[in-house]
Specification:
This protein is mainly α. Helices cover about 65% and strands about 0% of the residues. The longest helix has about 30 residues.
Length: about 325
């Protein structure tokens, strides 16, 4: 993957720093402006954070090795602090309500799910979306699904007991249960090919809005910071417990417009898998964690709420963009 195009002064500085050798401290003097409208929907901020987080995944082909550059990590942590702070402010009332009104973890996450239900992108894809809108949806989702479960895998060495074994069980399924062709990331790559899209990791980063970048960045924020392990597992529980029915609807929409079976196959896989994963994620992973570390319950609920809240924002943005104009046609696979 190559570096994306900058979207403002901050991401421009980050791109320039990433391209410079590590021995001249290129990150030491990066200036971080304060976005007037907040960071969640600021393209410049979210792209900058995404690039710094990506150093801990696949990296970039056209940069020096800055993964453990102390100044790069300080910059990432500074951006993370602003991102986390705004997310906590936006979700704190929902988390407090769930803590005070819910009788146990299962009821608490149910309260959050009801409170943060957003516009139904899956319903639109099922009934109304054009083939180009479905292709646009797939291109945007590729930013995460081509590294599916990797952010949550960072948490595995940071927990123990029942939560650890349950997380390992869930990740084993996500990573294909021993079969490379059944890796969920590989299945999504095959689905992209079936849509005539580029299956290369990060191919569409220049096309995704800040809201989609934020959906990806929150997983990295939680996964890369041990103190946020509770939030990471709460996020996983929200992701798994709200995807089975939407995946059924998305598969129906894909079949309605006549895309190849391999495209719908990815979503059919998740209809059954995520129904089982919902119980594992809430009761065994999060329940096991809270059982051994009760003080992490508020963070578990914060992670759950953050996932739903950012998905709500991203879904709203996607539907609005489709209602205003036809989305730009993603380039065909192999096009320059």
């Amino acid at each position: 993957m190559r570096l994306p195009q900058p979207r403002g002064p901050l991401s421009g500085q980050v791109v320039a720093a990433l391209r410079r050798p590590g021995d001249i401290e290129p990150f030491a003097h990066v200036d971080v402006p304060t976005p007037a409208g907040g960071v969640l929907d600021d393209d410049d901020f979210q792209l900058s954070l995404w690039m710094l987080c990506e150093l801990h995944y696949r990296g970039f082909d056209d940069v020096a090795d800055h993964e453990w550059d102390p100044a790069a990590i300080r910059l990432r942590r500074r951006l993370e602090a602003g991102f986390e702070g705004e997310l906590r402010r936006r979700t704190s009332a929902h988390v407090r309500h769930a803590l005070h009104r819910g009788d146990g973890l299962v009821e608490q996450v149910s309260i959050l799910t009801d409170a943060l239900e957003g516009p139904s992108v899956a319903g639109f894809l099922q009934r109304e979306a054009t083939i180009e809108q479905i292709r646009d949806f797939m291109a945007q989702r590729s930013l995460y699904h081509l590294k599916e479960s990797d952010p949550h895998a960072f948490v595995l060495p940071r927990i123990d007991g029942r939560a650890k074994t349950a997380l390992a069980e869930l990740l084993y399924d996500e990573y294909g249960a021993g079969r490379p062709d059944r890796l969920h990331a590989q299945m999504f790559a095959d689905a992209l090919k079936g849509c005539g899209l580029e299956p290369t990791y990060g191919a569409y980063v220049d096309r995704v809005p800040a809201s989609t970048l934020a959906v990806n960045n929150v997983m990295s924020l939680f996964g890369l910071n041990r103190r946020l392990r509770g939030a990471a597992l709460g996020h996983l529980a929200a992701f798994e417990s709200t995807s089975s029915i939407p995946c059924r609807r998305i598969a129906a929409g894909i079949e309605r417009v006549g895309l190849p079976d391999v495209v719908a196959a990815y979503f059919h896989e998740h209809v059954e898998a995520d129904a089982a994963h919902e119980q594992i994620a809430i009761r065994d992973i999060c329940g096991g964690l809270v059982e051994t570390e009760p003080a992490l319950l508020p963070d578990v609920l914060f992670g759950f709420a953050a996932c739903l809240y950012l998905d709500l924002l991203a879904g709203r943005h996607l539907l609005e963009s489709w209602s205003q104009a036809q989305p730009p046609r993603p380039p065909e696979r192999g096009a320059s």
